[in-house]
Amino acid sequence: MPHFICVTCGSQFAETDEPPARCPICEDERQYVGWDGQRWTTLDELRRDHGADIREEAPRLTGIGTKPDFAIGQRALLVQAPGGNVLWDCISLLDDEIGRTVEELGGISAIAISHPHYYSSLVEWARAFDATVHLHAADREWVMRPDERIDFWDGETRELGAGLTLVRCGGHFEGGTVLHWAAGDALLSGDIVQVVPDRRFVSFMYSYPNLIPLPAAAIRRIVAALEPYEFDRIYGAWWGRVVSEGGKEAVRRSAERYLRAIGAS
Predict the structure, then answer these.
(1) In which domain, by residue range, is 238 found?
(2) Which of 89, 121, 110, 71 is nearest to 193 (CA)?
(3) What is the pLDDT of residue 265?
(4) 19: left (phi > 0), else alpha (psi -120 to 50), else beta?
(5) Is 80 exposed, middle or buried (0-12, 13-18, 19+ CB in 10 A)?
(6) What is the spatial distance between Cα 37 and Cα 150, in angstroms, rounded to a whole number?
(7) pLDDT band at 108 (very low <50, low <70, confident <90, very high)
(8) How far is CA 17 from CA 1, 93, 122, 125, in A?
(9) Which end of the chain is more exposed for a tag (fewer CB within 10 A), N or C?
(10) CATH number at residue 23
(11) How far is it, in rounded angstroms, from Cα 194 to Cα 209?
């Protein structure tokens, strides 16, 4: 039986004879059902009309995306680390080119994903590279394809190796997580901390497509969660969404701007 993939959000579901009746992730107010209605594909179909987009983002940091874009259009990031490589966020596509490239770069020891919109084909990736997937337990309900390789962690931080720390920020989702990469002087943020087109700034939202803001308390929580960590760069969820310098100050400055805009400064 196939594992159907939602065309709008890219999430892969547990195997069924027929496509699921609905996608709970898309029906949630933070996302949306595609304008053409609920549509489904499979990994085999995706491989026929999409290919890998692999680029070096920085030394020991490789972006892995899909061309043409699929679903939300994010790219994953592979961090090469002495204690084992970490895949940050995930994409729906996994093909031979991606597999070869990842193995050449040292494989994957751990997968960590910022929030449910990027869970995509996480089980396919975990099985292909014999990796553990670390998801925050607060977002357990959004896993559409359960698997024994998924580690649901609790608390505010989780170490994935020397200098690689998952930090729960909340915000966009209750378990919303970022990855602090000390050796790269960087924060890998998904869209928990969203790098915006004016890359001197970031922003924060409950729903990006539906433009639902977060309350002041959530913004202050994100800033407080990141305060113990130093980082110069912020790598967002899409190609080019990178704060190249002054990342920590950009978070502070952006949070202050956001709070002023909602009258909570």
Answers:
(1) 5-261
(2) 89
(3) 74
(4) beta
(5) middle
(6) 30
(7) very high
(8) 5, 21, 21, 22
(9) N
(10) 3.60.15.10
(11) 13
What is the token pair recorded at 82?
A: 């002495």
For the chain, how many structural domains are there in total?
1
CA distances from 56 to 7, 80, 154, 249 (A): 27, 12, 32, 25
Task: Give the span between the Cα atoms of 128 and 99, in whole angstroms.
Answer: 8
Length of the chain: 265
Helices vs strands, H then E, count in the chain: 6, 17
What phi and psi values does residue 80 have, to the nearest 5 degrees? -85, 120
Amino acid present at 39: R
Binned at pLDDT 50, 70 and 90, residue 1 comes out as confident
Q: Are strands 186-190 and 233-236 parallel, antiparallel or unpaired?
A: parallel
